[in-house]
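Objective 1.3, modelling of assemblies. Example input:
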Amino acid sequence: MSEEPSDLLAARRAKLERMREQGVDPFPHDYPGVTAIAEVAAAHAGLADGEETDASYRVAGRLAARRGQGKMAFLDLVDRSGRIQLQAKSDVLGEEAMERLLDLDLGDLLGVDGTVFASRTGELTLRVTDFAVLAKSLRPPPDKHHGLQDVETRQRRRELDLMANEEARELFMTRAKVISTLRGYLDSHGFVEVETPVLQPLYGGALARPFTTHHNALDRELYLRIATELYLKRCVVGGLERVYELGKDFRNEGLSTKHNPEFTMVEWYEAYADYSDAMARVEQAVAAVAGAVGYEGEYDLTPPWPRIALAQAVLDETGIDIRANPDRESLVAAIEASDRAELEVEDHAWPKLVDDLLSKYVEPKITNPVFIIDYPVELSPFAKRHRSEEGLVERFEAFCGGMEFANAFSELNDPDEQRRRFEEQVRLGEAGDEEAQPYDEGYVEALEQGMPPTAGVGLGIDRLVMIMCGKSSIREVVLFPAMRD
RNA sequence: GCCGCCGUAGCUCAGCUGGUAGAGCAGCGGGCUUUUAACCCGAAGCGCGCAGGUUCGAGUCCUGCCGGCGGCACCA
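Predicted structure (tokens):
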């Protein structure tokens, strides 16, 4: 990682020493009064070619390019908001300062006082009247024109990606916008943001394997949460009525273009609402996000989105009727008889087979957002029984671009039914299902206290950002994705 | 875990059917007062991911390993 030829590093260190010898602090403490480059540009749009102004600004950023002229040079300075050209003239700065300025390296952090003018080709430029090194850079930056292309380096050393590639900066600014818009949507609709434990004595709320850790003082195993679901519903039991939490969940599973072991999820719970209300909220929230980030991608995110029953979607894509084959034996026979579906049947139980059909034949076909609704009860230990469909629960998942990005249901609030569901999970766990839910008596007791009818939603932020930014890999939208050592 | 593709200078990339490694940018020295991937001159910089093997000779062919990407599996 730090195997650069020593002469490249030595040259920068030599300049560092030279600065110190000249009495210049290469790492000053502050630089007050900086204006964003974009703000300077916005204030002077439409200058005529060669037009001078008497407007002065102080800007700061990283030195990105230099076109030297001996007694005059042009430099490019980049900050978070944009890039601006600087003009350095020997007769303005004096020879000594000019020499110091030209002795800087690409990548150095630089503060500049300058006067706005337009170059003779019309480019907005700051004529440098004074400058200060704000931090010496001791390593060479990525290529000034090609940026940093190598995917591995971009992800392992995101700071280089961010400094070299404007698109990377924009993407993570967009990500921030997605999150603040979601918060804004929920805040403005009466939801209270809460924080529940990340370290949990018992994990739950999703079908997944957890990470484990150890608390020394308590001398006990703890789990990193796989979902916020159960604690949030306890908040609803307590009367907070509309709550949400936005943060990291952790699932001990493989990496893929759609999975990172730690990922960001927002879950919200709304008392006196059901999954139909939740669908409307998801549509509204996504539409709000799309508007805020100026979405111009390939999908039509405009509400309302189609609602398709899971069984119907599977029937449409495979010709297999899961409702007519409600047990493992007949479903296996139907799959094997089908010429449109081919699955590893093996020892998979009925719900698992349904899930397989969904993820293999339905999910990849979906482009524009769709709600797949009404799931088999076996796949959904926390969802409430469907009010009219036997064996189903009131649950939906939202899909877009070939992947799921939200999961929601009318929450099961009958404690006795919940207890039976947990017992079933325990049976599955004992049968070897490593993702089965552990029994959570504390949660059941909370339900016994009485939880109002409630709709709950979990929405994957990373995947939503992927959709908004048109990225096909989650690693592109996570600053520091998990990678091998 | 399995399959395929990839790994050459700090960065971006060439390198044919095996003949002993190059360019641009960056860096170094010099020139240049309106450049825009500035330009011009000069001198440098590569154990070709790692380890073996085949061969007179390997960046190039073979095997294993490491890392990345994509897919499958696992998994929401």
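The longest strand of chain A covers residues 52-68.
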